[in-house]
């Protein structure tokens, strides 16, 4: 709301992993397994500045061979 921007960079192999397999990475945890050994992972991102009003979230894909898929987003106050 104050026009300041925070960037939270998520990295392949640190925050997310390929869903096709049961890969463990330190920046997220397995939410649940799917058929054929696939998986969904959970991660939490908190603003660096507590008690701010978030007015917009942008997901930006950088040049990388990965293709992260977002299944759901939950915001809590």
What does this protein structure show overall?
The protein is largely without helices or strands. Helix content is 0%, strand content 12%. The chain has no helices and 2 strands. The protein has strands at 29-33, 39-42. Strands 1-2 form a two-stranded antiparallel sheet. β1 and β2 form a beta hairpin. The relative contact order is 0.22. The mean pLDDT is 85.
Question: Outline of this structure?
Answer:
The chain has no helices and two strands. It has strands at 29-33, 39-42.
Structural class: little secondary structure
Unreliable segments of 5+ consecutive residues: none
Instruction: Give the overall form.
Output: elongated
Estimated helix fraction: under 10%
Q: Characterize the main sheet.
A: 2 strands, antiparallel
Total number of β-strand segments?
2
Q: Which whole number gives the mean pLDDT? A: 85
Note the beta-strand portion: 5-15%
What radius of gyration results from the CA coordinates?
14 Å
Q: Helix and strand string, N-terminal first?
A: EE
Trace the largest sheet across and list its strands. 1-2
Distance between the termini: 15 Å
Count, helices = 0
Topology:
Elements: E1 29-33, E2 39-42
Antiparallel strand pairs: 1-2
Name the features:
77 residues; two-stranded antiparallel ribbon; little secondary structure
């Amino acid at each position: 709301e104050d026009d300041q921007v925070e960037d939270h960079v998520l990295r392949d192999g640190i925050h997310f992993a390929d869903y096709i397999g049961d890969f463990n990475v330190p920046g997220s945890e397995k939410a649940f397994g799917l058929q054929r050994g696939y998986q969904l992972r959970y991660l939490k991102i908190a603003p660096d500045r507590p008690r701010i009003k978030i007015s917009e979230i942008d997901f930006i894909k950088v040049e990388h061979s990965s293709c992260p898929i977002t299944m759901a987003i939950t915001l809590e106050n």
